[in-house]
Amino acid sequence: MSEFLLLVAHAPSPNTQAILTAMTRAWDESLQNLPYRAVSPFETDASLIMDAKGIVLFTPENFGYMSGALKDMFDRIYYDCLDNTQGLPYCLCVRAGQDDGSGTEKSVKRITTGLRWREVQPPLICSGPYRDDFPSKAAEFATGFALGVEMGIF
Q1: Dist CA 88 CA 80 (whole Å)
Q2: CA 129 to chain centroid
Q3: Burial of 55 (0-12, 13-18, 19+ CB in 10 A)
Q4: What's the CA gap between 83 and 103, in Å, rounded?
Q5: Of 22, 73, 85, 109, which has the most beta carbons under 10 Å away?
Q6: E-assigned strands of the chain?
Q7: Which pTM does this prediction carry?
Q8: What does the H/E/C string look like for 116-149?
């Protein structure tokens, strides 16, 4: 089995970049024996996902849907991962400005259900105007997931 966590993050704006940075800092501080890789959806291929022990997906909500970058990743990896990543633990973090994040949550769940990935904690949806507590909430969210994977809970 693989021995790293994967954070696939599309962070095109300063506030999404702040959230991403908070998650990676939290992993730097909390993970003892499990390395991680943080990559853009454009850098993600099926082999990277198949080698991951767990995955955090982070995307802004664009027009009530996941980012085009994340959708592109799913389009490229879907069939290669379909029979090779069943049960992969994952969680979703969404930065939704104008919308409530539900469109992104539903669209990601449709795809991950098809892949038969295992959602191990409810999505974190940071919606509305940007707030200074979004990065700390995302750090706590990502840390809970990472520690669960590292300890073998997920």
Answers
A1: 14
A2: 21
A3: buried
A4: 26
A5: 73
A6: 5-9, 36-39, 54-62, 65-66, 89-96, 118-119, 124-127
A7: 0.96
A8: CCEECCCCEEEECCCCCCHHHHHHHHHHHHHHHH
